[in-house]
Amino acid sequence: MVRAGSPRTDAARNEAKKMKNLFKRFAADEKGTAYIMAAFAVVPLFGMTGLAVDYTNAVRTETQIETAAQSVALHLAKRTTLNPNIPAEDLIAEGKGLMAEMVKGRTLSYDVFQVDPSSGLVRIVAKTSIDTYLMHLFGQDELTVVGRKQAQFGRRVVEVAIAIDNSGSMDWFAGGSRKMDAAKTAAGVLIDAASDAVADYANSDLKFSVIPWHTHVSVPDEYLGGPDHDADWIDWEGRSTGHFRYLPPYKRNGANAGDMKWLMPRRETDWQIPQSRELVYYDPNRLTEVLPLEADGDGVDIDQLTRNGDTVVITRKDVFDAFSNVTWNGCFEHRAGDYRYSFDAPNDDDGDSLFVPHMAPDEYDRDGGGDSWQRNYRNDYVDDLGGDTDYDEDYLSIWNHDADFSRADIMRARTFNTAKYAVSQSTTGNWHPWGYFTGPNGRCNTAKLQGLTDNRTVIDQAIDGMDANGGTDLSIGLSWAMNTLTPWEPLAGAADFGEAEKILVFMTDGDNSAVYPDEYMTSMSSFGYLKDDPMRKGWGDDPSKAEADAALDDASKQYCTAIKDLGVKIYFVYFGTPSANATGVMNHCATSEETAIAASNEDELVAAFRKIGDDIGKLRLSHYTPPED
């Protein structure tokens, strides 16, 4: 806006004197009245020319001021929205300094320079005066130029789950750095970029969760109901159809005491009888055919199961409680039945909606003989024939068993002999070659996950605590990363869907890899033993590793589909050179081609995470220009 103003400068006065003298000489010329008439005709032309020149100059200056005011208003609005604890006077001083840099050679004054941290509104009304070159001849000595701008940002809630592969291969080197160290660095870079240098996370509306994963994810006590682990979404009672897969109920009394309570359909074996309570026939996939179920089939009718006094039920809680030297480490299996690939909230109506605590069964005793090197890789921590077991050594010996039994029959019967847990005892502290003690926690040895938080110290501690040790099962990392983004249990720390931008950043350095899928040998996965075909692929007792790996790939894809269906954006980052199978999983899981990223070394990984952080930072603010008053 342009309007009249204050006295001219000395240069302007000199220019005026020159113009007056010119008109005097012209008027005094005696060559004729025609010149006088021409002179009077020129006056309007000079006026219009002067008006055009001076107003063009004013408009140019006004544009310069408004451009500067718009840039500064946007900058300050973003700053105060991201961190409303910055004093308004500090931002105003910063803004005026920026204005002076952008509008050089002009002295600016302000009718309004307002920064409101509570609303994020910034208002600037800046002005300056410019001298006229010609219009002062007509009484217009100067023009005042005014620029008005205001800007405002709304903060959007953004929740980011960062799931980092903690498998053993992350201990290898990529270039000059250990992969695990490179991943930690990259995660920090992502957080820095996304936070946009805001120190006050409490006002950022930006939260992160950190999910270390390999074949398991470990949940800390704060989400489990405290040290007693009594949160109501945990199935300690046995209501899920997955709870008793490897703890089949057994008979308490009579000639068949210690045997399975119910007859099981015959498995593949040479023993020529159609059914038996003996565990050589045990098939976890068929346990639901004999257990009493809830009316809708989505859980076990625990009241009916325990009503018969001849039935001994040992739950996973009973197993952990029986040991004096072991406590449950907070890992879970995938949910059962219709809830397997679902992120619906757990509820009291369906047992399968509850989360089953991971319990790695005690596997065939190491001193059983007959399997050479494999003995060191079994998760053996109690006596196969202890507790309420009525078997004798000969009956289940690898050397002296009935000729109709195979070695696999004996392995199965010993592994799934529930009665051996029915005694208070200590686990045998066997050291597994992969670097952990055997026991009912199995390979549940990851660093604890951290649910959503805006506390940078807590976030950094969770990242720093990660270490490489374990196999690779993408599905468990994907599912628990998503659990941190749901507003309901098991973690219940997120905003409602539709009220926050939800993002999952998933990093892995390898393919899904089934461990000994054709053996009961340190191979208990988040789905159960793959030998038992928990995904119901129809592969019998001896799946190949390729079959089992492909099943894990399919499961990972199903989790990704369910996550994306909830509106969550997935960045899938592969650290290394992905195989064809890994590329298929990555491309399926990523939300778009741009969010499917392969990083071959640490520099590329850090660059990828920085780009992701920048993308996240842009999501955090929604800019709008409010109407001027």
Automatic annotation (TrEMBL):
Keywords: Membrane, Transmembrane, Transmembrane helix. Residues 34-74 form the Putative Flp pilus-assembly TadG-like N-terminal domain. It holds the Pfam family Tad. The chain crosses the membrane at residues 34-53. This is Putative Flp pilus-assembly TadG-like N-terminal domain-containing protein. It comes from Oceaniradius stylonematis.
